[in-house]
Design a protein that fits this description.
By secondary structure, the chain is mainly alpha-helical. Helix content is about 55%, strand content about 5%. Helix 8 links the parallel strand 5 and strand 6. The C terminus is likely disordered. This is Aspartate ammonia-lyase.
């Protein structure tokens, strides 16, 4: 009786001995050993599709370069090229099974890519998986390469591709806040400094500020993306280029630029580039900046929507789910909260990257797997966090206009707009009176005979209160004690 397909195996051999590999697996013995050795994260590298595509692009570019300079048979190079293209198109990603956290400076990831692409190529040639006498994962697919130039280059290519989708989502979020700024352009509110009442502004200005800060982060990420464009292909083991044809570096760069669409360049010092991972640290730091600023915005959204009865209650966030198993009707700001947690994770990942960069020794940094995992996870979580914040929160925010109007009307902060006309001392005395009596500030100014109702109304218009229309008149000298009806006790 024939064995079930799931139990059939093929035998593969390396320098340590032989292992039985599932017959249907495109990966081989080196990947199998990694699966045994690194059951750490239980997350395969395939969770980061752009890392897998980056690996395939490097293998494809290398095959084309090796064919061009004559160090790899054209038939073999073409098979590797075709196989890598299938991976780039999104096929066979489930075969990239080694864990994201692994020892060996990424060797297991490189071997996994070599084996999968080789076995795909063997099938394209009508051969059986594991027929390495015809096409070898190491001698052919890995020709002119080392993990030490393939892996960091694939990470940089993958991160650059992943960043493109993050930037798209970041810009969509910026535009969502900008749309709300337009919608709320005429809504006056009380601004706050140190959580205390300050001066008036519009809710539109507040949301425009959110949009502006996200736009600034878009620029910073764009600038730092170029840190990832310097690669070390052709460096092989430590940067000396041992086993590599002198023309390989220039050839593989040209092909990889064409395949990836990225403006890549070769490092001028391959020894330094192979051991230095500072670019990852700088890029991770920029991601952290974006995450922390986004978290601050989410803090503001939670504060502005707090209540709805006993808090600020200025805006309403869309109700997404029941907020309590004991308090009926409670709804929590779950979307901003989850984005806060993403930011915390990104900050932690940045520290991990920093320590891993510092941990490099001599001619190689062995900790690039955790660097790659940390940054890819940060980009992935940030992109998803931005998406849910935009779709499930920002787009549906509404404003409590009556509540804001009442708060502005009773706020002593509005008197700041009148100080150019009545003087600081008089304004301070009236502010104190308003706080003690709860009277409307505008009414107190008119009753004190300091300004006419018409002038007060004009100066306290939304445009002037928010600074959109600035008009300053001469300041008369009015002492606090000269105000009629002063009952402040001054």
């Amino acid at each position: 009786m024939a064995l079930d397909a799931m139990t059939r195996t093929r035998t593969e051999t390396d320098s340590l001995g032989s292992l039985e590999i599932p017959a249907d697996a495109y990966w081989g013995i080196h990947t199998a050993r990694a699966l045994e050795n690194f059951p750490i994260s239980k997350r395969p590298i395939s969770v980061y599709k752009d890392l897998v595509c980056g690996l395939a692009m490097v293998k494809q570019a290398s095959a084309r370069a090796n064919k061009e300079i004559g160090v790899l048979d054209a038939e073999k190079a073409d098979l590797i090229d075709r196989a890598a293209q299938l991976v780039i198109e999104g096929r066979f990603h489930d075969q990239f099974v080694v864990g994201v956290i692994q020892g060996g400076a990424g060797t297991s990831t490189n071997m996994n890519a070599n084996e999968v692409i080789t076995n795909i190529a063997l099938e394209l040639a009508g051969r059986e998986k594991g027929d390495y006498a015809f096409l070898s994962p190491i001698d052919d697919t890995n020709r002119s390469q080392s993990t030490n130039d393939v892996y960091p280059t694939a990470i940089k290519v993958g991160l650059s591709l992943d960043l493109l989708t993050l930037m798209e989502e970041l810009d969509l979020l910026r535009k969502a806040f900008l749309a709300k700024a337009v919608e709320f352009h005429d809504v006056l509110k009380v601004g706050r400094t140190q959580l205390q009442d300050a001066v008036p502004m519009t809710l539109g200005q507040e949301f425009h500020g959110f949009a502006t800060t996200l736009g600034e982060d878009h620029k910073r990420l764009t600038e730092n993306a170029y840190l990832l464009y310097e690669i070390n292909m052709g460096a092989t083991a430590i940067g000396t280029g041992i086993t590599t044809h002198p023309d390989y570096g220039a050839a593989v760069l040209r092909h990889l630029r064409e395949i990836s669409g990225l403006d890549l360049e070769l490092a001028t010092d391959l020894v330094e580039s192979t051991s230095d991972t500072g670019a990852f640290m700088s890029f991770s730091s920029t991601l952290k900046r974006n995450a922390i600023k986004l978290s601050k915005i989410c803090n503001d959204l939670r504060l502005l929507s707090s209540g709805p009865q006993a808090g600020l209650g200025e805006i309403n966030l869309p109700a997404r789910q029941a907020g309590s198993s004991i308090m009926p009707g409670k709804v929590n700001p779950v979307i901003p909260e989850v984005v806060n947690q993403v930011a915390f994770a990104v900050a932690g990942a940045d520290l991990t990257v920093t320590m891993a960069v510092e941990g490099g020794q001599l001619q190689l940094n062995a900790f690039e797997p955790v660097i790659a995992h940390s940054i890819f996870q940060s980009i992935t979580w940030m992109r998803r966090g931005m998406h849910t914040l935009r779709v499930n929160c920002v787009d549906g925010i509404t404003v409590n206009r009556e509540r804001l109007g009442a708060m502005v009307g009773s706020s002593v902060g509005v008197i700041t707009a009148l100080t150019p006309h009545i003087g600081y001392a008089a304004a301070a005395a009236l502010a104190k009176t308003a706080l003690l009596t709860g009277h409307n500030v505008a009414d107190l100014v008119v009753e004190a005979g300091l300004m006419s109702r018409e002038d007060v109304t004009k100066q306290l218009s939304p445009a002037r209160l928010s600074g959109l229309e600035a008009v300053t008149a001469a300041i008369p000298v009015i002492a606090a004690g000269d105000i009629d009806g002063d009952d402040t006790g001054a």
